[in-house]
User: Fold this.
Amino acid sequence: MSDASQFIAGRLRQLRAQTAFSQEQAADLVGVTFKYYQRLESGRVLGIRISTVEKVAKAYGIDLDAFFAKRRPKLRKLKALPPPHRKRKSRT
Assistant:
């Protein structure tokens, strides 16, 4: 994992912890799939696009300077989103 991927993954975990969101809620807030968000947060996405980082920053109400700052960014108040509903598989 590159230093950049490691930093971005750590920042995502930090932002999510500040809001007390689950990964599913954070993915919904950002507008990406749950699986993709998991990969972002674990640092397993190679070559993360800056547009994706901008999307994350905007979702949390911060700009790119705050996202990449050494200090923890101050977030706007976010309303907790209910977890997305999952379809249950029928056992027939």
